[in-house]
Amino acid sequence: MLKVEDLSVSFVQYTKGLKQKDLKVITSLNIDIMPGEVLAVVGSSGSGKSLLAHAILGILPTNATVNGTMMYKGEALTTKRQQSLRGKEIALVPQSVKYLDPLMKVGKQVQSAVRKGDPVKAQKDVFARYHLKSGVDGQYPYQLSGGMSRRVLVSTAVVSGASLIIADEPTPGMDTAAVQESIRDLRKLADEGAAVMMITHDIDTALKIADRIAVFYAGTTVEVAPVSDFEGRGEKLRHPYSKALWRALPQNEFLPIEGFQPLPSALPPGCLFAPRCSMATPECSAGQPEARELRDGMVRCIHAT
Question: What NCBIfam families does this protein map onto (predicted)?
Answer without folding.
Answer: oligo_HPY
